[in-house]
């Protein structure tokens, strides 16, 4: 498979997409007059658009390519995780959304200072920012690495197109531009998955019936052995528990998703956003797994079309470039770019929101709305440049181990962060000191579990979350709680949750 086969029509389709995304950023630039516009969109976002944005944000280009590869080489068991993400929504509706809406937060970590102290706020905010700078680097790097064999571009050019253009339109359009580009990107992702599957159905002898029959014969859906319990392997019970806590972290303690709760006009629109996201999550990922089954059937019938020693991780872009019509292939590669950019742009705006709200406002003397907007834009560029530089380093050094370990270690903070919000909202007698003891105990325990046991990584979030809540609850009586009764009522399950 030669890179030059990408072709002129495909390049035109890709360039048109990139130009359209830039146009969205330019269009919304004129509305960015204050930090409230830049980080909250002035409440102008309809619920359905915010829902598309949540969906596109949580589906990176790596997911776009890895799900079909997973279904191609293994089975559909990871589909379970998508429905677990839907199952947590009642918890989010009843408890978390009222908190974040009523408190009028820019950064979700503001809550941690109100409930505990500034140390907890800085812990949450800085952990989030560092993790997402690493995430930008990893997503950009892996996307460039995956596409490099199939399109006539150097990896550095791919990094530039993904990263630099993403910085520009996020800088210009703020969260409003990010969300509306996410809508475009979400539609492209969904449409691409459906289109690829339909094309494969026409190319496989026996069509859709043969695709699903072959997968059933080969045990590529939910094999019986995957229903067993295991402490070290990713079986279905482990996946269900792990995805529950991972989804809880994403929807209750991660700025990039929680920020979508405050961009709508009212709480009903916010709930509509999550319902829209749930509908998309319920339907679209099935097509990604079906694409993997379709590719398995197609290349089982046509093994001569696969190069020797082919890396099946790139099976989706390989099929797109080699079998899809010219122009259409370009649009689908553009969808892979879209998946990458939707995740990165959300990270950029969220990092800027956290820094501006959690750090700049703390050290500055009552900055104006214009000053906060300026700082937010500077941070958008700074975070983007750091991510692009890190991606460039990974490409030039051809070594990802250090950054993978860094990103993985920071990812372990998700459990403690989820537990910290749980402790604050549901345990009234918890206080700043008990929260600190809980977080330190949680981090130490998770690090020990990771390096000294063979416990499956899906349990890390479970251990991290429960340790904060349990230790924070047990040690609370040892320390003085400085919150007034009125603050406890406002900042825990009580009036706010019922409002």
From TrEMBL:
<keyword id="KW-0739">Sodium transport</keyword>
<dbReference type="GO" id="GO:0015293">
    <property type="term" value="F:symporter activity"/>
</dbReference>
<protein>
    <submittedName>
        <fullName>Sodium:solute symporter</fullName>
    </submittedName>
</protein>
<feature type="transmembrane region" description="Helical">
    <location>
        <begin position="319"/>
        <end position="339"/>
    </location>
</feature>
<feature type="transmembrane region" description="Helical">
    <location>
        <begin position="434"/>
        <end position="452"/>
    </location>
</feature>
<feature type="transmembrane region" description="Helical">
    <location>
        <begin position="280"/>
        <end position="299"/>
    </location>
</feature>
<dbReference type="InterPro" id="IPR051163">
    <property type="entry name" value="Sodium:Solute_Symporter_SSF"/>
</dbReference>
<dbReference type="Pfam" id="PF00474">
    <property type="entry name" value="SSF"/>
</dbReference>
<keyword id="KW-1133">Transmembrane helix</keyword>
<feature type="transmembrane region" description="Helical">
    <location>
        <begin position="6"/>
        <end position="28"/>
    </location>
</feature>
<feature type="transmembrane region" description="Helical">
    <location>
        <begin position="458"/>
        <end position="479"/>
    </location>
</feature>
<dbReference type="InterPro" id="IPR001734">
    <property type="entry name" value="Na/solute_symporter"/>
</dbReference>
<feature type="transmembrane region" description="Helical">
    <location>
        <begin position="229"/>
        <end position="248"/>
    </location>
</feature>
<feature type="transmembrane region" description="Helical">
    <location>
        <begin position="48"/>
        <end position="67"/>
    </location>
</feature>
<keyword id="KW-0915">Sodium</keyword>
<feature type="transmembrane region" description="Helical">
    <location>
        <begin position="122"/>
        <end position="144"/>
    </location>
</feature>
<dbReference type="InterPro" id="IPR038377">
    <property type="entry name" value="Na/Glc_symporter_sf"/>
</dbReference>
<keyword id="KW-0812">Transmembrane</keyword>
<keyword id="KW-0813">Transport</keyword>
<feature type="transmembrane region" description="Helical">
    <location>
        <begin position="156"/>
        <end position="175"/>
    </location>
</feature>
<feature type="transmembrane region" description="Helical">
    <location>
        <begin position="378"/>
        <end position="396"/>
    </location>
</feature>
<feature type="transmembrane region" description="Helical">
    <location>
        <begin position="408"/>
        <end position="427"/>
    </location>
</feature>
<comment type="similarity">
    <text>Belongs to the sodium:solute symporter (SSF) (TC 2.A.21) family.</text>
</comment>
<keyword id="KW-0406">Ion transport</keyword>
<dbReference type="GO" id="GO:0006814">
    <property type="term" value="P:sodium ion transport"/>
</dbReference>
<keyword id="KW-1003">Cell membrane</keyword>
<keyword id="KW-0472">Membrane</keyword>
<feature type="transmembrane region" description="Helical">
    <location>
        <begin position="187"/>
        <end position="209"/>
    </location>
</feature>
<feature type="transmembrane region" description="Helical">
    <location>
        <begin position="79"/>
        <end position="101"/>
    </location>
</feature>
<dbReference type="GO" id="GO:0005886">
    <property type="term" value="C:plasma membrane"/>
</dbReference>
